[in-house]
User: Which sequence fits this backbone?
C-alpha cells in the first residue's frame, strides 16, 4: 500500500507540477505549491498502524493526500507559535495542544528540531516516525532499492571483517 501512496504522490508532483526535476526538493526551502499557493501536505494510508499520526482508523483499500493551504493556519494561532519545543505538562498554544493530544492517544509524531526544516520528508512519514529514518519518497523506487541493497552489502562486509 505504501508503494501505491508513493506512486500517487510522485505522479501528481512529477507529471502535473513538474517540481521533482528540482534538485532541492529535499531541502528546507521547498514547499509544495500550486497556482502560486503553498500547501501543507499529508499522506494517509492503511499501512500506517494505530501508533501513527497518519492512522486511517480501520479504513482499508484506499488512502488520501491532504492538501491544506498554508494560509489556513493563519485562521488559528499556529503560525506565530511555530517552535520545535513543546510544553508537555501544560500546553498553552494550539500547536502544543495538538502535539499533546496526539501523544496522549499513542500517536506521537516526529517534531522537527528547528523552525526551518525540509517539508518533503513530512509528506510521507515512515511507518514508525519516531524511530525510522525519513522516507525519501521523491527518490525513484529503483534508486531507493539500490541504496538499500548497497547498505545491506556494506553491513554484511563489515560483519565478515
Assistant:
Amino acid at each position: 500500500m505504501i508503494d501505491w501512496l508513493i506512486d500517487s504522490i510522485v505522479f501528481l508532483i512529477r507529471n502535473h507540477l513538474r517540481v521533482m526535476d528540482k534538485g532541492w526538493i529535499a531541502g528546507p526551502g521547498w514547499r509544495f505549491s500550486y497556482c502560486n499557493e503553498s500547501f501543507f501536505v499529508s499522506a494517509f494510508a492503511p499501512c500506517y498502524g494505530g501508533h501513527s499520526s497518519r492512522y486511517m482508523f480501520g479504513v482499508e483499500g484506499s488512502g488520501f493526500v491532504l492538501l491544506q493551504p498554508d494560509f489556513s493556519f493563519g485562521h488559528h494561532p499556529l503560525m506565530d507559535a511555530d517552535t520545535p519545543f513543546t510544553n508537555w505538562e501544560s500546553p498553552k498554544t494550539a500547536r502544543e495542544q495538538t502535539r499533546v493530544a496526539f501523544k496522549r492517544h499513542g500517536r506521537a509524531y516526529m517534531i522537527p528540531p528547528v523552525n526551518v526544516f525540509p517539508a518533503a520528508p513530512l509528506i510521507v512519514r515512515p511507518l514508525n516516525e519516531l524511530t525510522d529514518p525519513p522516507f525519501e519518497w521523491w527518490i525513484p523506487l529503483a534508486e531507493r532499492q539500490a541504496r538499500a541493497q548497497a547498505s545491506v552489502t556494506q553491513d554484511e562486509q563489515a560483519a565478515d571483517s
Remarks:
- The chain has a mean pLDDT of 83.
- Residues 2-160 form one domain.
